[in-house]
Amino acid sequence: MKTHSDKGLERQIEQILSGPRYPERYFTLSGRTYREVYEMAAGLTSLFSSLDLGDAPICLCSESKAVIVSALLAALSSGFLLVLPYSHSPHALFEMHNSTGFKFAISDHDKDLPLGVEAIIPASLPGHGTSLSQSAAIDPDREWLRLYTGGSTGTHRIWSKTIKNLLAEAFYLSGKYHISPSDRIISTVSPYHIYGLLFSILAPLVSSSSVLDDICSFPNEIIAAVGQHSVTILIGVPMHYRALCGHGIQGSSLRVAFSSAGVLAEEDGSDFYRQNGVGVVEIYGSTETGGIASRCRAKGETGFTAFDDIDWKITDGLLHIRSGFISPEIIRQADGFFMTSDRAMPDGDNGFVILGRSDAVIKVAGKRVDLEEIRDKLKKVPGVNDSVVIALPVRKGRENAIAAVVEGNPDKNHLRKTLSDLLEPCAIPRSIKIVDQIPSTASGKYDREAIERMFRTGFSGLT
Prior knowledge:
Elements lengths: L5 H12 L16 H17 L7 E3 L4 H14 L3 E3 L5 H11 L3 E3 L11 E3 L22 E6 L9 E5 H14 L7 E4 L6 H14 L2 E6 L3 H11 L3 E4 L1 H6 L12 E4 L6 H11 L3 E7 L3 E7 L7 E3 L4 E5 L2 E5 L15 E9 L4 E7 L3 E4 L2 E4 H9 L4 E11 L4 E10 L3 H11 L8 E5 L12 H8 L8
Parallel strand pairs: 1-2, 1-3, 2-5, 3-4, 7-8, 7-9, 9-10, 10-11, 21-22
Antiparallel strand pairs: 5-6, 11-12, 12-13, 13-17, 14-15, 15-16, 16-17, 18-19, 20-21
């Protein structure tokens, strides 16, 4: 398997912990310098060594990217484990506390924490210089942090990530996309999502680049931030590229834009390229697998090309991967490959086309129905901007009912007639709801739990 050399990674870790390459350069634009970040990390490292944690992790619930990267550096240096919450709400932190038993939470300020949990505020800790060097080499396979999936299905699952999982990928991305100290980055996605963590925290750290502390969501915020800070890299998600349609960024300094956490609509990527002259690089992967492949449709790439450190194959129509970025608890086959849930077909010498998820193919009235095919048909109807098609179990799970939520303003009668012409009767959604905007999670994925709630009272026997 092609993989990042452990010896090479150990040397890179030593360099990271020896101190910042450019102490006076800003890590967060117009905010904290690298010197200040490392001083906070040294203070946390000293504090961690005095705490009696047992096997409990430390919860990281700061909104500041400078504090987040300081905590990651301290955990890397000290050997303690961090857990990143899926939400900073009191309910989510209470739920996480019950499942992980954390006793301390790193924050920007005092906040409503579960009973018995003590807040750690890095800015208030005494300085201890900027070196985090260790006397012994750090094991790249050591667990570094745990983070959650976005919960788009309503179930929040926690995944472990080792030092190698994250830093090997961060170094790879930094090299592949030539991220350098001169780059200035903004993100529309939270650093508590794997995509945001890699691209807006770890890639800047290993490349000594700068990142905007704020998370931009609205078109005017993104456009203003790019202009004000001479931003060169945009980290976005499909819903935000959709919102940017028709908006050009005048005098843009952007050299590359990324998208992940869902499929970018071809028309949205094309519009961004027309408006700004920058093609959107789509990153394919997941929390548990890390990055797998990329494509840029503006360069004529229809399929995904696997990253250099990824081995892949297609067996029985499903994509299998072997990678050093995969979470350690993932069960692999004897040859080290992990079977994903994505259906794929080869494309060229080292590429593949994703055909949809295997769990998107269901049976209705004894016939196989592809939910992604229905979605594609819906998106071709005039007035439809986007759609999500789901299957809802009815009659105690013995049958499936298809439902669709449509974003836009199509004529409903024309919509149903078009679908009846294009689809078999069993594939036509039993219920269609037209909305101004499809519900999404903070990470930019479709909020399937919220979508399901739209239909719960519409089907008799819904389980």
